[in-house]
Amino acid sequence: MKIFLVLLCTIVGIWAQENKKLIAEEQMLEHIHDECQADPATNADHELLHNLAANIDNPQVGAHMLCESTKVGLQKPNGELDIPTIKEKIGLSVPDANRVEFLVKECAIKKNTPEKTAINLFMCLDKNGVTYFHEF
């Protein structure tokens, strides 16, 4: 019984630590979103952001999503995808390493522009249930 209790406490401790990382990351995402919204060059109407698929060609939506993607580290300043960071961020809410690899191959795909790359990355991850990015 004592071994079970120790094991349970260990599992709860690990879960709480991981949960703290995710909470801190979500707070950072909220800050990044606010920074991008505060800049007139990257500000976008929330209604447009909530329907990315219908607004994929909207320049303000593209600028905003690239701003967020770059600030969180998913894309480098030159617009290229940062695969190690993408894996790390997906891993915050997806514990299965094989699933993380699948999602990176499925979603981290360079498009015609850095803005479209950012939008498609977020749409694909959202479609696949990656909850880490719901703050965006």
Automatic annotation (TrEMBL):
<feature type="signal peptide">
    <location>
        <begin position="1"/>
        <end position="16"/>
    </location>
</feature>
<dbReference type="Pfam" id="PF01395">
    <property type="entry name" value="PBP_GOBP"/>
</dbReference>
<protein>
    <submittedName>
        <fullName>Minus-C odorant binding protein 3</fullName>
    </submittedName>
</protein>
<dbReference type="InterPro" id="IPR006170">
    <property type="entry name" value="PBP/GOBP"/>
</dbReference>
<keyword id="KW-0732">Signal</keyword>
<dbReference type="InterPro" id="IPR036728">
    <property type="entry name" value="PBP_GOBP_sf"/>
</dbReference>
<dbReference type="GO" id="GO:0005549">
    <property type="term" value="F:odorant binding"/>
</dbReference>
